[in-house]
User: Fold this.
Amino acid sequence: MKRTLISMGIGAGLMYLFDPELGEVRRSMLADKFQGALPQTQEALASKVEAVSAKASELTEIADNAAAEKIDLLGNEAVATVDAAEEKAA
Assistant:
């Protein structure tokens, strides 16, 4: 049922755009609207890409700092373990 309705909608849209009498005018108007909307869309997309890039950089820095802290912690634990083993052996 859903597929049928979608197919009917697509068919009606194609008939509207390819109408022998007014189809060319309609396609031209549609192209003009898309041309006018394109710069706004590009600006909005560029803004979103910049925001996502900034957030990714922020998250990368947080992850790097967390990893460095864990490495330091594990390094200190490893040194303490080696020191304890050496004390027992001595």
